[in-house]
Model the fold of this input.
Amino acid sequence: MPATIIVGTQWGDEGKGRFTDLFAKEMHLVVRYQGGHNAGHTLVVDGETFALQLIPSGVLYPHITPVIGNGVVVDPAVLLDEVAMLEARSIDCSRLKVSGNAHLILPYHQLIDRVTERHLGKNALGTTKRGIGPAYADKAARVGLRVQDLYDRDIFREKLALVLKDKAPMLAKVYNQLSPSVDEICARYLDDLAPRLQPYVADTINLVHDALEAGQHVLFEGAQATFLDLDHGTYPFVTSSNPVSGGACTGAGVGPLHINRVVGVAKAYVTRVGAGPFPTELTDEVGEAIVERGHEFGTNTGRKRRPGWFDAVMLRHAVRVNSLSEVAITKLDVLDAFDEVRVCVAYEVDGTRLDHLPDSQSVLHRVTPVYETFPGWGSDLTDATEPGHLPSRVHDYVTFLEQQVGVPIRLLGVGPGRDQYVQLSS
Done:
């Protein structure tokens, strides 16, 4: 029962989508297991760019069944707009399956997200304000509405009225905001969105298990990344779900014995969006050059990402938390123009060297990175397709990274295109 998980190992934006797309060639199902439309991924196929938010990357292959699992929070309007966008570009979405157990993002979630983030002022978390966190909060509080509730009008209205009984006064009295009414939300969700979403709704847990038991290959795709994980990330500057590999089990309804491969994706440098600690952050002209060469702006939000050198301490921690079997490095070509490249191998704080990530957030804010410096390779890597096409300095750099993180690096991304990668080993 071959199952693979792909997980980001930094603060997101590592290029998971393009490697999910690459691995999807050998898959039957590609399952998104957490997050919402706050995590975009960009694919370049035959010179054509596809920016996806909710639909798994495998949708671009005609043999793939793309699945949105129970751990995802779904804004039906966004999902249906994405379907329409893809179909307008001749991508068939009829195979898409959406779990009836997935929770819905509702208008008051988006409203709460916007007003609470604004209310936090300088302590804002940097959310995308798309209602993801409030939807997960309602899920944990057991007052969330799920996709399946759309198909029982009485249940939907009853649950909605109960939720709004608390949320509407809170929005009005605390934030001076008027929540949409029960009737307004029902008209939009039950009469408009539900009928259009219904062809895609399915029992995805049994769908996934039937595929595994038939010996089919299943790929589990996470959104965001390890250090945005609610439990294992740089809290509170995190997302509201579990992008780590273990999240695939709860977010898709499979046990860990089904998983036989966990691929961690890391950029050849590090970026993050929004607030939070960042030991290797570059605020100089080198950082600006990375942003410019790497086009480091959010797929969904357009926000400029904060750049920094590669952090092996982070990746070693991600290897442990996710049980990574291997690593794929993306955007190696972005470093082509640099005279030297640096790798953070440890942290230093109060005169003490730390080889592992500190478990105290206060300490992490104060660490100084310890670097190893390598000469740049001064070559354009974008046409490389085999290990022999890579300069010896690239091999030296990658070998050093492998030694630092303790698992093999099997793939190198050398450009944004579907075929712009080098496979180092099988």
